[in-house]
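can u pls check wat happens w/ zinc ion
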Amino acid sequence: MAIARMCESGADAGKWYTVILGQNGARRAGYCATGCTGHESSQRALAHYLQFQLDRETDLWFDRREPACECEICGARTTLRARLGRNTKLIALCTHHQSTKSLQTLTFDCSTAPVHIGSLRDAHRGRRSD
Ligand SMILES: [Zn+2]
Ligand SMILES: [Zn+2]
């Protein structure tokens, strides 16, 4: 699970980074793990991580085995799917909206921090939809 966390000690104290919480504690994730000098806010830290996911961990595909769902943006019925990051929920996007730009839009629309990136779809809809 990826969250924004402020560094509390050392040279980076007061700076925000996106970290992944694991069994052995938190470690910096995505671009925040590689030469990042930290961010002024949690939202900027999450945006930095989101950019990493958009660049490296975005999947867009057509799922012929699944029933059509409503596009997350316009509501059109579609069997096209997208996923941002690993082990996250699928997002339904129609032909017009199946792009990394749409994923970015969906994610930034509800940029309240700290937020679990995997739950952005639910946050966007304002309710749990399991
Ligand atoms: Zn960063
Ligand atoms: Zn659409």
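The chain has a mean pLDDT of 83.
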